[in-house]
Amino acid sequence: MYLYSQYMIGMFLQVEHNKFQWNQNNSYQQKQFLYNRIFLKL
After folding, report:
1. Distance CA 2, CA 31 (A)
2. Please, are residues 5 and 16 in contact by the beta-carbon 8 Å criterion?
3. Which domain of life is it from (predicted)?
4. DSSP string covering 1-42, please?
5. Distance between alpha carbon 19 and the CA centroid of its chain, in Å?
6. Tell me, what's the pLDDT at 18?
7. In the chain, what is the greatest distance between 2 CA atoms, to the nearest angstrom?
8. N or C: which end of the chain has fewer CB within 10 A?
9. pLDDT in the model for residue 12
10. Which residues 6+ apart lie within 8 Å of 21 measured at CB?
């Protein structure tokens, strides 16, 4: 169950990451920074 939840979290982060890639507006760099901060804390 633990591995499954980790897998789901990984998939969710990948989807969020893809959203950031597609949403390249003025706040793209800020979003990418926040994503990296969240990712490094896991």
Report:
1. 28
2. no
3. Eukaryota
4. -HHHHHHHHHHHHHHHHHHHHH--STTHHHHHHHHHHHHHH-
5. 9
6. 72
7. 39
8. N
9. 84
10. none
Residues 3-41: tens digit of each pLDDT:
778 888 888 888 877 776 665 555 667 777 877 787 777
Tokens of residue 42, six digits: 């896991």
Which amino acid is residue 5, in one-letter code?
S
Q: What is the pTM of this model?
A: 0.37
What per-residue confidence (pLDDT) applies to 24? 57
Question: How far is it, in rounded angstroms, from Cα 17 to Cα 33?
Answer: 11
Give the separation between CA 13 and CA 16, rounded to whole angstroms.
5
For residue 9, count CB atoms less than 10 angstroms from its CB and return exposed for 0-12, middle for 13-18, buried for 19 or more.
Answer: exposed
Please report where in the chains the tokens 């800020």 appear, as a residue: 30
